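Weekly modeling sync, notes
Attendees: S.R. (lead), two postdocs, one rotation student

Agenda item 3: backlog of single-chain predictions. S.R. asked that every request posted to the team notebook include the full sequence so nobody has to chase files. The rotation student volunteered to paste the first one in as an example of the format we agreed on. Action items at the bottom.

Example entry:
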Amino acid sequence: MTHRVPLARRYLFGERRRALLSTAGVAVALLLVLILDGIFAGAMRQVTAYVRSSPAAVIVSQRGVRTMHMSNSALPADLAAQARAVEGVGWVAPIGFVSGVVGAQTGGRQLSYVIGYTPGQPGGPHHLVSGSAPVDGEAVIDQIAAVQLGLHIGDQVRVLGVWLQVSGLAEGGTSIVNTTTFVTAAELDRIHGPTISYLLVGAQPGTSATALRDTLTAALPDATVQTRAQFANQEAAVVADMSADVMRIMAIIGFAIALAVVCLTLFTATLARRRDYGIIKALGAGGGRLAGIVIAQAAWTITVALATSVALAFVVGRVVEAVAPTITIAIEPASVLRVAIGAAVIGAASALAPLRRVVAVDPASAFRRTS
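Predicted structure, as returned to the notebook:
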């Protein structure tokens, strides 16, 4: 007979209580890492949501300015006309961008990016949940900010020190640190002065974003031209740099805790089965066979724990977003792969660490009575 009994799986799941505890311990440890990664990835999605949802192929900004966050861009009034005359340009939508504060009559206040655009053209909110686009004297605010400030459609909201009427509620514009407010370009000019911060540029059919970027760069040498993807990456990089040290420390601590739990769990689980290994050795198994069983048990534990932790991460993410809408937890494939590789390496090392004791176990000990 060449059929081999799957001893690793049978030993692991034969004692269900011990298997459950081992798997649960590893799963919780991996869940911690996935949640920390998910919070950071979710914050990056929130930060770049406006840019990523834009229909623009290319974004034009002041020379040397590559982001909206922590930046101040001002463009000449005639630059939009120059851009429209460039071959391959389908449309151009100027927008104004100002950082400030929005508030309610009840006294609530929030930091906000205020975007001035021309209704009917690109540059406004990606999706209106209710209400309508603003006209002069009105503003569209994010629905999460509206709840936090106690505002409804028709209420008065203070935008950059001026009271406007809420005309609609949008979604996807509020993050952990701020929100987004939309007004007409004319209203922003009245409040803040003539403001053209960026040009959103669409490409004609058959023109790629990179080709349009190169053409506009040559035609507008005094401006910075980026594809939408490049601009979004720059936005994410700025926020990552601002929070890199804190997030790096959190990630290191979380990963260290997770690896310690994985190491201790698998190390202990291996030693706890020395009597079982003694029986296998008494039946003629060599060191290679024992090592294979130990590694297989670790692989089963990590696989089940990883699948459990990923499922729990999605559930926890939905619960957190329901309780705290400003927090988004995004579980990305790259994060799962990174956690899986780390757990596999540490798991194998942890399981093999006591292998010398396992190989050296006396086969006769498997048949002695334990007091």
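Discussion: group reviewed the output briefly. The chain has two domains: 7-47+240-367, 64-221.
Action items: rotation student to repeat for the remaining queue; S.R. to check formatting next week.
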